[in-house]
TrEMBL record:
<dbReference type="GO" id="GO:0006559">
    <property type="term" value="P:L-phenylalanine catabolic process"/>
</dbReference>
<keyword id="KW-0413">Isomerase</keyword>
<dbReference type="GO" id="GO:0004364">
    <property type="term" value="F:glutathione transferase activity"/>
</dbReference>
<dbReference type="InterPro" id="IPR036282">
    <property type="entry name" value="Glutathione-S-Trfase_C_sf"/>
</dbReference>
<feature type="domain" description="GST C-terminal">
    <location>
        <begin position="87"/>
        <end position="214"/>
    </location>
</feature>
<dbReference type="Pfam" id="PF02798">
    <property type="entry name" value="GST_N"/>
</dbReference>
<dbReference type="GO" id="GO:0005737">
    <property type="term" value="C:cytoplasm"/>
</dbReference>
<dbReference type="GO" id="GO:0016034">
    <property type="term" value="F:maleylacetoacetate isomerase activity"/>
</dbReference>
<feature type="domain" description="GST N-terminal">
    <location>
        <begin position="1"/>
        <end position="82"/>
    </location>
</feature>
<dbReference type="InterPro" id="IPR005955">
    <property type="entry name" value="GST_Zeta"/>
</dbReference>
<protein>
    <submittedName>
        <fullName>Maleylacetoacetate isomerase</fullName>
        <ecNumber>5.2.1.2</ecNumber>
    </submittedName>
</protein>
<dbReference type="GO" id="GO:0006749">
    <property type="term" value="P:glutathione metabolic process"/>
</dbReference>
<dbReference type="InterPro" id="IPR036249">
    <property type="entry name" value="Thioredoxin-like_sf"/>
</dbReference>
<comment type="similarity">
    <text>Belongs to the GST superfamily. Zeta family.</text>
</comment>
<dbReference type="InterPro" id="IPR004045">
    <property type="entry name" value="Glutathione_S-Trfase_N"/>
</dbReference>
<dbReference type="InterPro" id="IPR040079">
    <property type="entry name" value="Glutathione_S-Trfase"/>
</dbReference>
<dbReference type="InterPro" id="IPR010987">
    <property type="entry name" value="Glutathione-S-Trfase_C-like"/>
</dbReference>
Length: 214
């Protein structure tokens, strides 16, 4: 059986996995779970993913969710090209960079958080957009500080792409969705430019997906 990926055009986490699959040249079938319509809460999808989030990768009967876990899983079963560095120190640094987006910046702007802000605190569309822009900028600013201390040459950990670059590129997705100017973060902008010049990144962008409302 081939690889199946439950995802959604707008999902930042699904973007990360699409990039990883493309870099490893692994074909896959993407199955849409419309997050904006709430289909992640449908009973049949709850059987696929107990957390009711995307993405979920299905391969050889195994289901893996959480984008960083999926990328590390792919690295173990299809190790070329490697997305995790060789040394323990660099692997820890790559994970730390990845988690700035995966665990800190991105989770604060996902649909369930935006819905909770509206339903529990009465936040209107403008307040929710301001919230999202704030946390998106916080993520970009953190990456900028990290790249000043350890400049990308040409990628976050040197000559080879890693999960760090994929997750930093994901912050561009958030910036694009919320119309943020990434030029205020020059080191991040330069790295993102190098990444999105590669087809694996450019073709995985949400705006290039079939479900994107044209």
């Amino acid at each position: 059986m081939g690889i199946q990926l439950y995802g959604f055009w707008r999902s930042n986490a699904a973007f990360r996995v699409r990039v990883a699959l493309a870099l490893k040249q692994l074909p896959f079938e993407e199955i849409e779970v419309d997050l904006l319509a709430g289909h992640q809460f449908d009973a049949d999808y709850a059987e696929v993913n107990a957390e009711r989030v995307v993405p979920t990768l299905v391969y050889n009967g195994h289901r893996v969710f959480q984008s960083l876990a999926i990328m590390e899983y792919l690295d173990e079963i299809h190790p070329s090209p490697r997305l995790m560095p060789d040394s323990a120190e660099d692997r820890a640094y790559a994970r730390a960079m990845a988690l700035v987006s995966v665990a800190d910046a991105h989770p604060l702007v996902v649909p369930r958080v935006r819905k909770h802000l509206a339903e529990t605190f009465g936040a209107d569309a403008n307040a929710i957009e301001a919230w999202c822009r704030h946390w998106a900028e916080e993520g970009l600013a953190t990456y900028e500080r990290m790249l000043v201390k350890r400049p990308a040459a040409p990628f976050a950990l040197g000559a080879s792409l890693s999960v760090a670059d994929i997750c930093i590129a994901g912050q561009k997705i958030i910036a694009d969705l919320h119309r943020l100017d990434i030029e205020a973060f020059p080191n991040v902008a330069a790295l993102m430019k190098r990444c999105f010049e590669l087809p694996a990144f450019a073709q995985a962008h949400p705006f290039e997906q079939a479900g994107y409302p044209r």
